[in-house]
Amino acid sequence: MVEPPAKQLGTGALGALGADLPKIPGYKVTGLLGEGGMGRVYLGHQNSTDRRPVAIKMLRTLLPASEMARRFEFERQALSRLNHPAVAQLYGAGHAEDGRHYVAMEYVDGLPIHLHCDRNRLDLRQRLQLFLAVCRGVEHAHRRQLLHRDLKPSNLLIAIPDGEAVPKVIDFGIARTLEDQGGETAFTGAGLLGTPAYMSPEAVGPSDGPRDLDTRADVYSLGVVLYELLVGVRPSRQPRLGRCVGLRKLGVPGQGPPAFKPVVENGRVIERRQSGVRLRRIWII
Question: What is the pLDDT of the chain when averaged over all its residues?
Fold first, then answer.
């Protein structure tokens, strides 16, 4: 959802939390990974296993009937449908000692896909191989009748277990089932559902009531991710989206993202430099 960016905390900030860390049966919470408008994500270990690291997502509110609690429960149900190497695995769910909902998931210690590719100077073939692995994970979700609705680089992380890069699709917080034919409005009391720069026109455009989306909405988002992955800039600008749905009223900046020019040597993108002008059109040949 459109909300203040999640805060990423360093190790120094983690130690400062102390007694603020939640107590969850079966888990040892060791620090705070980040926070957003919906809740917080903690790092912990599962006591019943060989202390494997887990990411524990917790709601801010104790109200069981709230919109946040409803979406949190749906995310748990969505993750329970999925079992694929390119999708972060669900380990468990329940209530902390203070009564708040939590979901314990596979901890993915990795970078967003575009940062991983740039920092490791991956060539075109290597980038496409990672992207295809992401597509297989999204296809698995679609075959389980789930629409992600917020596919973007920060939700496509690259883990490196045993030295091999493995993509992981995370954050099904605003997912919906394809069986649900009732549709859903693009807005809630918290704002717009999704990330405007990666949303399909039918998902972000104006609507007087519920809308029905299908897998093409996720495919569109993947196309934007691929464009950015290969070119270094998104294909559309936020001002155009802002005129469609009045994003300025939601506090979304009206300026488009800066244009970045990929620097290529021997078929490898070695860095992206911010250019002095905005790119009007980029042809991929």
Answer: 75
| Nearest in space to 88 (alpha carbons), one of 101, 106, 104, 64 | 106
Measured distance CA(160)–CA(128) in Å, rounded: 17
- What pLDDT, in 10s, does the model give residues 255-278? 444 444 455 555 555 555 444 333
pTM equals: 0.73
DSSP output for 231-280: HSS-SS-HHHHHHHHTGGGGT--SSPPPPEEEEEETTEEEEEEE-SS--S
The catalytically annotated residue of 50, 118, 150, 180 is: 150
Q: How far apart are CA 285 and CA 65, in angstroms?
A: 52
Question: Could you tell me if 213 and 203 are in contact, meaning their C-beta atoms sit under 8 angstroms apart?
Answer: yes
Q: Which two tokens stand for residue 222?
A: 């993947």
- Residue 90 near residue 80, CB atoms below 8 Å: yes
Encoded tokens for 277: 């002008």
More confident residue, 153 or 274: 153
171 is catalytic: no
CA gap 60, 205 in Å, rounded: 30
Whole-number Å distance between alpha carbons of 58 and 72: 9
CB 64 within 8 A of CB 45: no
